[in-house]
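Why should sequence recovery work at all? Because a backbone constrains its sequence more than one might expect. Tight turns favour small or flexible residues, buried strands favour hydrophobic ones, and helices have their own preferences. The token representation captures these environments compactly. In the example below, the structure is given first.
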């Protein structure tokens, strides 16, 4: 489960946050407050970092040095955990980059 959060939940969360932010722009403009946009982005960024941390811990526990003649199934968990770590970190970076313009631009433009 730790691996799948980084592989599936983090990228899906990027798309969900983008849709939710677009839906909340009219509300933010009407209230002249970007608090709702910031809350959604902050929670999503924290969840992506959490999923990345779980995947990283799974990768570090499963990525033991393998002998020269190892079973390929033993390395499969480490490979998936590494991919989940990279994808989760990329998703967190994308969310941070999508959140950054909210600090600088007004939603009413």
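From this structural description, the recovered sequence reads:
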């Amino acid at each position: 489960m730790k691996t799948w959060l980084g592989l599936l939940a983090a990228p899906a969360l990027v798309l969900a946050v983008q849709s939710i932010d677009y839906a909340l722009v009219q509300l933010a403009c009407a209230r002249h407050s970007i608090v709702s946009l910031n809350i959604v982005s902050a929670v999503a960024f924290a969840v992506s970092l959490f999923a990345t941390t779980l995947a990283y811990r799974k990768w570090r526990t499963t990525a033991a040095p393998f002998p020269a003649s190892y079973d390929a199934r033993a390395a499969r968990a480490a490979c998936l955990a590494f991919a989940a770590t990279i994808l989760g970190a990329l998703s967190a970076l994308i969310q941070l980059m999508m959140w950054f313009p909210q600090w600088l631009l007004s939603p009413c433009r």
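A few observations help interpret the result. The two ends are 42 Å apart (CA to CA).
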